[in-house]
Amino acid sequence: MIAVSILNGLAIGLLLFIVAVGLSLVFGMMDVLNLAHGALFLAGAYAAWFVAGENPTMAGFLAALGVAGLAGIVAGGGLSLLTEPLARRSHLDQALLTLGVALAVAELMALAFTKDVRAVNPPRGLDRAIDLFDSQYPVYRLAPIGIGLLLAAATHYVVERTPVGALIRATVDDRDMVAASGIDVRVVRVAVFAAGSALAMVAGVLGSPIYSARPGLDITILILALVVVVVGGLGSVRGVLLGALLIGQVESLGRALLSDLASFLLFGTLAVVLALRPHGLFRVAGGR
Amino acid sequence: MKYLTFAGSLAALAAAPFFLAPYATTTLTRILVFALLAVSLDLLVGITGLPSLGHAAYFGVGAYAAGWLATHGTSQALPQLGFAVAVGAVVAVAAGWVAVRSHGVFFLMLTLAIGEIIQQLAQSWTPVTGGSNGLYGIPATRIGDFVLTHIALLHWYATAVFAVGFTIVWCISASPLGATLRGIRDNEPRMRSLGYDPRRYKMMAFVIAGAVAGLAGGLLAAQQRLVTPADLGFTTSALALIAVVIGGAGRLWGACLGAALVVIVRDYLGPDLGGHGPLVLGLVFIAVVYALPRGFAGLRRRVAS
Amino acid sequence: MEATAFNRLLSRRTLLGAAGAAGLLAALPGCGSSVGEQAATTAGGSIKIGLVIPQAGVYAPLGTDMKRAWDLFLERHNNKLGNYTVTTVTADEGETPQTGVPAVQKLLQSDRVDVLVGIVNSAVALGVKDMVVEAKKLLIVSNAGANDITGKARTPYIWRTSFTNSQVSAVMGKVLAGTAPAGVFAIAPDYAAGAEAIAGFTGTFQAGGGKVLGPAKPAFGKTQDYQPFLSQIQTSGAQATFCFFAGAEAVAFVKQYQQFGLSGKIPLYGSGFLTEGGVLTAQGDAALGVQTTLHYTSELDNPANKEFRSAYEGKYQAVPTVYAVQTWDAALVLDRALRKATALDGDTLSKALESVGSVQDSPRGPWTFEGQNPKQTFYLRKVEMKDGKPVNAVVRDMGVSGQPAT
Question: Each residue of C242-298: pLDDT tens digit?
């Protein structure tokens, strides 16, 4: 039982990583807490149901992933433009604007898809269960593990080893200096917003066989993503990965071992981490 | 001039039951309760610069305390309110001790975490809090031999308590303590170099804000005669924070206007909106954030100039 | 910065003026007086009924079913209940008492309705009790299942046409009593309804000599991934699982129950809400073979249900659910009561309801009030495929039961 829980924690954790990495980069770079991030995840889940249907084929599912990626880029660009006029105002204003957008978008989706749950089965081929440690485990849940690890490796490579990554790191450290050296920070901002939003929507498609598209899922995922990002330390990919893995285990292994305290585990972990390390586990050097 | 406006507003509030229909008066009473919560949060957010996403916890804890006392002890108004304030303050001391070490978004999330833990406690501790059904059937508050069930009586009671709470926060804001808090908000390192201990002052602000929130909670127990875990949770905290921002952080009367807007949209118009309440609320937030950079409070400056 | 025409239009002054004007307009209905006696608003021969249903939030699908059934009944009765012409005012209960209590308050104080019908959230139903009693108006609860509503908190002003949480699960306890010697694992979310369901099941199951394992209590509204609990069920050695879930949690649990391979090895049983309405469509194949107990299924084979179902499907192109039937029955008993009532206040109507007696022509089968709650027939249902769609087929008639003593 413990082994299955650990594996499950890995799956949930890496799915959360895919959702949270965009949120962390946007906040680290732009100091904008994008509270519409959860709504993007939900939009991705609805997209999976709409494009691929309830019993998707692999082709349909891949198509849904593509659609979500493109829609996410557009949505991210739009969000970036919406928050641009508020660039000099307080973080609270920006966060609340995105919250207003999140509420409105969630309502519009409920109007479009009704308030019933829209469940999506894993794509054909991945909808079996395998025997694992004397019980069964759904094969599909291994997908986020593979994709999440690939993404973590890719993000690490891009951020640490490429000029684009250097630009991103520089902007996280000192935005004004980057602007002073002649680079249009607005382009960087739109690009990061777009990439982060695309990741959120793709995560929504990936998560739909596990979570199902329904009203309220946006707030649930937003809170999980926020906890991951804050626990890990803002603006750091390594921090998000560690935070996501930790929260994944808390939600799986933690609930299995401490079932009486299950309701308190998530926020208890956040409170303990922040009480001991007030800036999260990985403080970005020179960051805020 | 300010005192005249304040006195005038109070008089208008007191006169309300004579020219407002019953449900409008009830809504106004509800606005007063929420406004007191928003004002207490403004002390924390606007004046001290500590954005809290878990402030409803002290509000709810105060409400539960007052409701519990009314059910098991006395339903007299003063003991109820006193107990609510005391419990709110005690919980704020414990929470603040952990929280004020953080800054910015970390403080935000830590207060959220503490608030959620307290809400979960309220939901799980069924013998005391009534669990997910909450404390229902709270006996009506009494002042001496007067039972406050009539809409108008309840409204005057709420106006009186609101006036007291608002005055307390206003006095603090206008006092040297308020100036110190604003200094910490604007430039903490400088204040430290001047010899102030920011942590001590932040703690003071946190506990006072928690106590006033508890007072508002005591009022809630009297007005609604029902306290549920939802009153403690993220939604209430977020709406209070939104009310403060809409009103213009730092301007106490702005927080009251923001609270009025939120309550009117949710409770007065909400039941008729066929389920689209959240959409309307979201659109209102977007509109206000764009159009009013300094909230409602910014309007006065503009109109005057 | 130059002021363009647009900027001038959008200037603070204009906005303030517009907001003020809009506010005044919205406030007009608020004029009046809260001091002094309130005049009645309904003339003789007509009645104003407040329908309290969730239209926002997770319970909204139930609200839709409730409103549909209500409208259908009125349509088929010339918009009359008894001999009174009906005006229905709908108020959105929302998701929590924070929105539910104001909704009921608005109906009572602003719209001045004569009767209240509906309510899904038990906390709301319990929370408005004082309000309803002080206003002396009748409330017919057509969903909220908390035992206390017609138990510890009973009042002559609040009647119910739905169920109590323990009543529904107690029947499943009878079904499984004497089976599964190694034990049945009980699981329900950590809130009042879940606790009452498990208590009801445990009562009758243990009385029949059974052993209950667990119970497990996943956090209510905060659990999306049931793997830790499913592992717990597997290692417990249970031979069956009893659960209580509704809405999105029912979908998640049933689907994951199948995905983790338990559905073939450890049969799943539950209170009927597990597979009722839209959740069954979302569960799809995962729900096949799941058995539940409930006081209604769309597959019931009695004349009243056949007629009700064809009318409902004809008008809405959807299959009726228990939530619809409960509200239909609320209209039905109100119709009966109003034929005998001489006035519309709570005391008169409450006495009229007492004399309604046994209801023979309800789609759920015959039932009668017992302690202001229905004493009704329960059915053991099983999810099967019919014409390519999953339905709750009737396995057995479990006889009549009332609310268990708490």
Answer: 999 999 999 999 999 999 989 989 999 999 999 999 999 999 999 999 999 999 999
Structure confidence at residue C2 (pLDDT)? 44
Query: Of B160, B216, B220, B143, nearest to B14 (Cα)?
Result: B160
CA C169 to each of CA A215, B100, C193: distance values in angstroms, whole numbers, following the listed order: 28, 48, 11
Q: Which residue of B has its CA nearest to C94?
A: B275
Q: Domain containing A220 — which CATH number?
A: 1.10.3470
* Residues in chain C closer than 8 A to A115 (CB atoms): 57-58, 60-61, 64
Kindly report, residue by residue over B205-260, the tens digit of the pLDDT: 999 999 999 999 999 999 999 999 999 988 899 899 989 988 887 788 889 999 99
Range list of H helices, A37-122: 37-47, 58-83, 91-113
Residue A284 domain-assigned (yes or no): no
Contact A97 B286 (CB under 8 A): yes
- Domain for residue A268, yes or no? yes
* Domain limits for position A267: 2-276
Q: Is C192–B131 a contact, with Cβ atoms under 8 angstroms apart?
A: yes
Entry pTM: 0.91
- What residue ranges of chain A have pLDDT lower than 50? 285-288
Q: Which of B48, B52, B101, B109 to mutate to test the interface with A (most CBs of A within 10 A)?
A: B109
The interface residues of chain C toward chain B in range 148-177, judged by CB-CB distance below 8 A, are 148, 153
- Chains A and C: how many Cβ contacts under 8 Å? 100
Chain B residues closer than 8 Å to A280 by CB:
106
Is A282 contained in some domain?
Answer: no
- SS3 label, residue C368: strand
Answer yes or no: do B21 and C109 touch at CB < 8 A: yes
Number of domains chain A contains: 1
Q: What pLDDT is attached to residue B305?
A: 42
Does A288 fall in a domain? Answer: no
| Cβ contact, residue pair B281, A227, below 8 Å | no
| SS3 assignment, position A179 | helix
Q: Is C51 exposed, middle or buried (0-12, 13-18, 19+ CB in 10 A)?
A: buried
Task: Tell me the per-residue pLDDT of A92-112, one tens digit each, with 9 for 90 and over.
Answer: 788 888 888 998 899 899 889
For chain C, the farthest-separated pair of C-alpha atoms sits apart, in whole angstroms, at: 85
A113 close to C (CB below 8 A): no
